[in-house]
Specification:
Distance between the termini: 25 Å
Low-confidence stretches: none
Radius of gyration: 11 Å
Largest sheet: none
Mean pLDDT: 89
Helix content: 25-40%
Number of strands: 0
Length: about 40
């Protein structure tokens, strides 16, 4: 299976978002845990 580069993906997992942004997974969980978060699908 061909792997898609992270910069071409429209949606990222927490692990991918952490690697791409340099923000820790726990911090991303805190940022995305709010009910009205616009970053979560």
């Amino acid at each position: 299976m061909k792997e898609i580069p992270i910069w071409e993906k429209s949606n990222l997992s927490l692990e991918e978002a952490a690697a791409y942004s340099g923000i820790g997974i726990n911090n991303l969980r805190d940022l995305t845990s709010h009910e009205n978060c616009r970053f979560v699908l």
